[in-house]
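**Fold tokens**
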Amino acid sequence: MLVLSRKRNESVVINDQIVVTVIEVRGDKVRLGIQAPRDVPIHRSEVMAAIQRAQEVGTAGADETNG
């Protein structure tokens, strides 16, 4: 994992396509702005985990009906 320090309004560029900017730091929370192409999905990690679980359940259900 790469760890970087950034201040408010400073950014990190990923692969010339994605720009992550620190918008605000308040206590232990950081607000980030993310600019990326529309075809790049962006999710909070807990949302991504829920999507993956739902896909696994859907896939398992499809396997059971086809088996």
Q: What stands out?
A: The longest strand covers residues 18-26. The chain has one domain: 11-66. The radius of gyration is 17 Å.
